[in-house]
Amino acid sequence: MNIRLIIVALLPMILGQCGFSQPSKETSSNTMENKNKEYSHTDASKVNLSDEEWKKVLPEDVYYVARMKGTERPWTSKFENFHEIGTFYCAVCGNALFRSDTKFESGCGWPSFYEPISKSSIIYATDNTLGMERTEVMCGRCKSHLGHVFKDGPPPTGLRYCINGVVLDFEKAAAAEKKYKEQQGDKK
Ligand SMILES: [Zn+2]
After folding, report:
1. What is the pLDDT of residues 117-139, one digit of tens each?
2. Average pLDDT in the 14-42 region?
3. Contact call for residues 188 and 177 (beta carbons, < 8 A)
4. pLDDT digits over 99-111, tens only?
5. Cβ proximity of 36 and 30 under 8 Å
6. Which residues belong to the active site?
7. What confidence tens digit (pLDDT) does each residue in 38-80 have?
8. Exposed/middle/buried for 128, CB within 10 Å: 0-12, 13-18, 19+?
9. Which of 18, 58, 95, 180 satisfies CB 3.0 to 4.6 Å to 90 for a cystine?
10. CA of 91 to the centre of ligand 1 (A)
């Protein structure tokens, strides 16, 4: 009788320990976001890091496009043929850039959008490299190179924002909403 009582008393402790040991395994992933302290979906303040500093925290392919104004190979982005509903963010700083309902099939080999999420989310510059006159598109928060904008897009804007998928992060609508509610809850 006494032994049974002891087992019953100990059982929740044993089970509890098993339960506690699981989450620590999951939190060890995603080292990029841990290293990159500028990444935020809520902080709108401008980010001003040198290329040298970015090189330390960004994956090589992201650094090459975002900071060296490189271009990913066409048809290689996981976002090129992608139809989830949600928001696309700058992979460098987390700034919201495009909504999935402004994404369209351009057939050009890169993820394409007809409108940014807000006027301030993007900045523009004239790009005369490669013997062409193009308009470069950069992140409005961290000034990372994203791609170019062309005037052959669909209505209502007639614009085609041709964006390197490697500098985009995506969050599904439901996940973003859940996070937003949690943050609002934290503030209360
Ligand atoms: Zn950015």
Report:
1. 999 999 999 999 999 999 999 99
2. 57
3. no
4. 999 999 999 999 9
5. no
6. 162
7. 999 999 999 999 999 999 999 999 999 999 999 999 999 999 9
8. exposed
9. 95
10. 7
pTM: 0.77
Output the average pLDDT for the chain.
86
pLDDT at 157 > cutoff 60: yes
| Ligand 1 centroid from CA 165, angstroms | 13
Cα-to-centroid distance, 65 and ligand 1 (Å): 12
Residue 143 pLDDT greater than 80, yes or no = yes
- Separation CA 39–CA 45 (nearest Å): 11
* Distance from C-alpha of 140 to C-alpha of 164, rounded to nearest angstrom: 16
Q: Are 113 and 162 in contact (CB under 8 A)?
A: no
Instruction: Give the C-alpha separation, 17 to 21, whole Å.
Output: 6
Q: How many CB atoms lie within 10 A of CB 40?
A: 16
Residues 6+ apart with CB under 8 A from 118: 96
CATH number of 32-187: 2.170.150.20
Handedness of CA 188, 173, 116, 102 (dihedral sign): negative
* Alpha-helical runs (H) found in the chain: 2-21, 23-26, 31-35, 51-57, 60-66, 173-187
